Input
Amino acid sequence: MSHGPVQAERSATIEGVGQRLGQHFLFDNSILERIALAACGEHAATVIEIGPGPGGLTQHLLPRCERLVAIEIDPALAGALRTRYASEPRFQLVESDVLQAGLSQWGPAVVVGNIPYYITSPIVDRALSLGPLLGRAVFLVQKEVADRLAAAPGGRDYGYLSVATQARCRAKVLFNVKCGSFRPPPKVESAVILLEPLSEPVCDDLAGFLRFASTCFRQKRKTLRNNLAGHFDKAKIDSLPEAAERAEQLAVGDLVRMFNILKD
Ligand code: SAM
Output
């Protein structure tokens, strides 16, 4: 039996299906090893890999963990992985849409993947929603999205996605990956992002805060006063020193402080 990644050229995958499922495979061992190391360090107990595809990353994760749960939607790729790791007790294949799989069922875990770009935001959201069960998440994503997830206030990339992410974790872009490293190459540059959960929540009412933050960024060019008008007491809004600023200028901590004043 071959122990190399399942052939990318897997003729069974019709090109259109591959595109629809965001199938751009990585075979560069040095990049795969860097991702596995960032996710697991020398050792991790449970690792959840999203979208293992032909198993290039899987091969680098397995020696570093006690249990690897791999969630793959494509039946042909899932079948090939199941066969390849049939005698590997640490490997568990879940043939499913990751958005339908309850990630918390495996307990505390590291979440990792060269993930399908068409569902980056919901995957990041599901990983972060694990709360204290999430050790860390390491994702290979579109570079533009990685920059937005980790952006600091005041910059071009900072917006609701940055706030919704950084309200729950520290986000750091680790390194970039060129289009040519994938087969087939995607049209956009990629980057590996590390998400490390905060030890203390930034706010007692996180769901309420995220709704508030979304209102603050509703129209990016408008001031907070304008975006918040009609949602909160006008006198309270006017009393905020930041009312004349735009949300994109404020750090998560500033927005949390405003939310705590306005919500009561
Ligand atoms: N990890 C592999 C690699 O690096 O070569 C494959 C990465 S490829 C960018 C994304 C993988 O996610 C594909 O194998 C694709 O079939 C799978 N995928 C796409 N949508 C999915 C979903 N909703 N749930 C689970 N896997 C999905």
Remarks:
- Residues 21-26, 51-54, 56-57, 71-74, 77, 97-99, 114, 116, 119 surround S-adenosylmethionine (CB under 6 Å).
- The longest strand covers residues 134-142.
- Residues 1-14 have pLDDT under 50 and may be disordered.
